[in-house]
UniProtKB/TrEMBL annotation:
It comes from Picrophilus torridus (strain ATCC 700027 / DSM 9790 / JCM 10055 / NBRC 100828 / KAW 2/3). One of its GO terms (molecular function) is homocitrate synthase activity. It catalyses: acetyl-CoA + 2-oxoglutarate + H2O = (2R)-homocitrate + CoA + H(+). One of its GO terms (biological process) is carboxylic acid metabolic process. This is 2-isopropylmalate synthase.
């Protein structure tokens, strides 16, 4: 079942509760967070154990359904972090290649879930793995079988799925499921899909298999969130995301964007506590040293800030005029900023919020002075008018 919604994000203001899935039974999209694995693959990023534990704890509080805590075979420190995180309550998984060494590394951590992957596109099979489709299929069966025989729940990803021959991909999915994988994740490994191709791709997979499907979209063309949403509209059951969209190259689909889009644009829901999003976003930004651009959707400093006089005038009368999302959903407040583009409504609003009342003529005069003198710092303005 796909989940289209006729709505759009403005509904975050009106009828918010039903759009947020609080009142009705909706298809629940499973949110799989890979900040600690694909997010950490961002060039130059390496979380220390304490940061990993802190992020995992926040992800548990956020309500994500599965946390990819790392790639156990990478190093003994990585494996140690996975073990430590496993001491918490939550659903944790580790990535592994289709080989015994990686699977044993996951078994050694004591976690219950393994994310096995192997590339299935001809370009990866020929030039990277230097093998054949038949051998890939054998590795899939053998690895899933081995992991299952050690009691692990298996999520399987055919890497570079979106460049894989569709008939072969369907065989891979059916084989992985019949070998015991509980879900297949479809990665758009190099981010070459667009919302229409992604919709059609997932629609075909859902029609030709009985598998539970999630998607993992990269942002090389800036479409990771849109592609994830298109996949969900086509019937995908889950999405792999990272906080702030960090990850390989241009990153992954951003958790905050996907979650709000699912609630705003579809009839599906998630189990995410949206009020936790700003806190984890700030922490991941600090720990990864990947600063969030001001105009980043949902978590950027400007996402709920307004300077333009015409906008502020509209907003003060009714926030829906210029705000698609109620910042209260994230536990945030809107910010009115004074600047070159301010009008009298903004200035009056700011002054009144500091208990300063001025006549309309005075407000107009002050605004002219502010613009002439290029003074936009709120404290300086307050000093000037008091
Ligand atoms: C699309 C993704 O994001 S996949 C995840 C990518 N993440 C990472 O690579 C980060 C962690 N990686 C690492 O720390 C290291 O690369 C390790 C520990 C995994 C492997 O290191 P090395 O053994 O030195 O191998 P190296 O990185 O040079 O090459 C990768 C090897 O894995 C093989 N391989 C790649 N993918 C798979 C797979 N899914 N299943 C089995 N083998 C695989 C390659 O063919 C190559 O094998 P070879 O050494 O026999 O030629
Ligand atoms: O899809 C996954 O999560 C595993 C491999 C991967 O990260 C990718 O293909 O981009």
């Amino acid at each position: 079942m796909g989940c289209f919604g006729g709505g759009y994000a403005r509904f975050f203001h009106t009828g918010m509760h039903s759009r947020l899935g609080l009142n009705s039974v909706k298809k629940r999209i499973r949110i799989f967070d890979t900040t600690l694995r694909d997010g950490e693959q961002s060039p130059g990023v390496s979380f220390n154990i304490n940061q990993k534990i802190r992020i995992a704890g926040m992800l548990v509080d956020l309500g994500v359904d599965m946390i990819e805590t790392g790639f156990a075979a990478v190093s003994s420190e990585e494996s140690m972090a996975i073990r430590k995180i496993h001491e918490m309550d939550g659903n944790f998984i580790s990535l592994a290649r289709c080989n015994r060494y990686d699977i044993d590394s996951v078994i050694d951590t004591g976690i219950d879930n393994i994310h096995l992957f192997i590339a299935t596109s001809d370009i990866h099979i020929k030039y990277k793995l230097k093998t054949s489709r038949e051998n890939i299929m054998e590795k899939i069966v053998d690895s899933i079988d081995y992991a299952r025989s050690h009691g692990l729940n298996v999520l399987f990803s055919p890497e570079d799925a979106t460049r894989t021959d569709m008939n072969f991909l369907i065989d891979v999915i059916n084989t992985a499921i019949s070998s015991g994988a509980y879900e297949i994740n479809i990665p758009d490994t190099i981010g070459i899909m667009n919302p229409i191709s992604m919709y059609n791709f997932i629609h075909e997979i859902k029609n030709r298999t009985k598998s539970c499907i999630s998607v993992h979209c990269h942002n090389d063309f800036g479409m990771a969130t849109a592609n994830t949403l298109a996949a969900i509209m086509a019937g995908a059951d889950g999405a792999q995301v990272t906080v702030n969209g960090i990850g390989e190259r241009a990153g992954n689909a951003a958790l905050e964007e996907v979650v709000l889009s699912v609630h705003a644009f579809t009839d599906c829901s998630t189990g995410i506590n949206m009020r936790m999003i700003p806190k984890i976003s700030k922490y991941v930004s600090m720990a990864s040293k990947m600063y969030i651009q001001k105009n980043k959707a949902i978590v950027g400093e400007n996402a709920f800030s307004h300077e333009s006089g015409i906008h502020v005038h509209g907003l003060i009368n009714n926030p829906e005029t210029y705000e698609p999302i109620d910042p209260g959903i994230l536990g945030l407040n809107r910010r009115i900023v004074l600047g070159k583009h301010s009008g009298t409504t903004s200035l009056k609003y700011i002054l009144e919020s500091h208990g300063i009342k001025k006549s309309d003529d005075e407000i107009s005069g002050i605004l002219v002075r502010i613009k002439d003198m290029n003074i936009y710092d709120e404290n300086e303005i307050l000093k000037m008018v008091r």
